[in-house]
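REVIEWER CHECKLIST
Item 1: Sequence provided? yes
Item 2: Single chain? yes
Item 3: Sequence as submitted:
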Amino acid sequence: RIRERLCAGSFENPRAFGFSTFKFESVACGGGHSLAVERGGRSVWLWGDWLGKRTPSPRQIEIGLRVVKVSAGGAFSFAVVEGGRAFSWGLNADGQLGHGDLLDRQSPVGISGLAEVEDACCGGRHSLLLDRSGAVLAAGNNKHGQLGLGPQLAVAPAGPVKRHVDVWFSQKPHGASPRIRLIACGDRPSAFVGFPATRLRFC
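Item 4: Structure as written out by the authors:
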């Protein structure tokens, strides 16, 4: 069962709700909505303030593939499925969905050209993807430098921009090429952890 704040009201302490017939393996919280992945990755459920509509009861989001990871952003979401494809949906005013355009998506759409995604995270208006090579792909708003592309670009070019770890790590510890292992997004900042270099980096 899920323990979460319901959009029908606020509670000082977590309260159980939901689905007596379903079990869940992970949840994600965004700016105004939440996501939950059913055990086994069979379904994704969404509730909260979504695209200007209040959704007090969880509704099922159909992707059709086994979901291994979800992330919820300001008003958009990402899902990574078994096999490494990434799907995104929601608001896209800054290109944060990674499709190379500014069109909103009402339902999940696979990002073309990406097949080895391991992780995804959503910020307020930007997104990061981590692939199996350890490279990070960034899309969306860059007004505060959160994509790691430098301050000269307010918004990323069309589609996700790939950044390899050597761009951020000036030294290779012990002669080994570092690899990004963890990524995280806040409303505006981004952070990642590389290995074997264990420092936390921000942008």
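Item 5: Key structural point noted by reviewer: The chain is about 0% helix and 45% strand.
Item 6: Recommendation: ____
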